[in-house]
Design goal:
The complex is a heterodimer. By secondary structure, chain A is mainly alpha-helical. Chain A contains two helices and no strands. In chain B, helix 2 (about 35-50) runs antiparallel to helix 3 and helix 6 (about 180-190) packs across helix 7. The longest helix of chain B has 30 residues, at about 60-90. Chain B starts with a helix and ends with a helix. The chains are: A mainly alpha, B alpha+beta.
């Protein structure tokens, strides 16, 4: 149960960090805006928002997968 | 690029009212390639780890600690890799009508700025050597400053020829507009420059005579 609690704590912190990071990122890029479509896209087509979505999805996926396995392992 | 100038708000912190961004660039995408490639590897390891997780003995404290450590490490690595990607996007170098500004900013730990007045730029060197640099079109810009010993080096510059031309053009435009540093004006007033006269000094002398 202790391990389960620690894992949940990790996940809450991780989600918090992810949300705070995205919030800070958007606060900055909305304040100091560039026309990203000119020529600085990564590989010519990758927008920053794609990475933001991927980041949130990655963190969410890890949290879900860990939670499921943590419950299977430690809750019983 | 002209629509950049039409934006009502600023492009970076500390931008002056009469200053506009002519062009800007980030490091070449090659700098980010290892980070981007690492992400699928992390997910591969995660999948492999989760596959073997049911075989872990949950009653063993050592195994539980190892699982805990693995989970913790996974979170750290994911955040770190994405922070590197965000840093790539936030770290920009801008050429404005007054200066070259390097905004070195990350999400949490870094917020630095380095600017070079265009009128202090004495010479610019563009280095693009080797197969990869020429094939993928990136290189290094070395900016020599007047009265300074150490040149400013900007590496992994994408399309260096374009940036090189733009900096030279911005400098020529600025000199044409007649904005000279006080040092040049003082030199002319003091009657200096008898030996070697710069274009800026000659222009300033003509302007003062007129």
């Amino acid at each position: 149960m202790v391990f389960l609690g620690i894992i949940l704590l990790f996940q809450v912190i991780s989600l918090g960090v992810a949300l705070l990071s995205v919030r800070r990122l958007y606060a900055y890029i909305n304040r100091y805006r560039f026309n990203e479509s000119v020529y600085t896209l990564l590989f010519g087509f990758v927008h920053l928002r794609y990475f933001v979505v991927l980041y949130l999805a990655a963190v969410a996926l890890v949290v879900c997968a860990e939670s499921a396995f943590a419950f299977l392992l430690f809750a019983s | 690029m002209n629509n950049l100038q039409n934006l009502s708000h600023k492009n970076f912190k500390g931008q002056m009212d009469d200053e506009f961004v002519i062009c800007y660039f980030r490091k070449h995408w090659l700098t980010l390639l290892p980070t981007v490639l690492t992400i699928p590897i992390i997910f591969g390891l995660l999948a492999a780890g989760l596959f073997y997780l049911p075989f872990v003995d949950a009653k063993s404290v050592a195994a539980a600690v190892a699982v805990l450590g693995g989970f913790f490490l996974l979170h750290i690595v994911i955040h770190k890799q994405f922070f590197k990607i965000f840093y790539y996007f936030l770290h920009t170098t801008m050429l404005t009508n007054h200066r070259i500004v390097e905004v070195d900013r990350s999400l949490f730990l870094r917020d630095s700025k380095n600017s070079i007045d265009i009128l202090n730029v004495q010479d610019i060197e563009k280095n693009q050597s080797g197969l990869f640099q020429n094939l993928l079109n990136f290189g290094t810009l070395v900016i020599y400053l007047s009265g300074s010993s150490a040149p400013s080096v900007i590496d992994m510059v994408p399309r260096p020829e374009y940036q090189y031309k733009k900096i030279n053009q911005a400098k020529a435009d600025l000199m044409e507009r007649g904005r000279y540093p006080n040092a040049v004006r003082a030199q002319v007033k003091a009657g200096a420059g008898a030996g070697v006269e710069t274009v800026a000094m000659a222009n300033e002398r003509t302007k003062m005579a007129g």
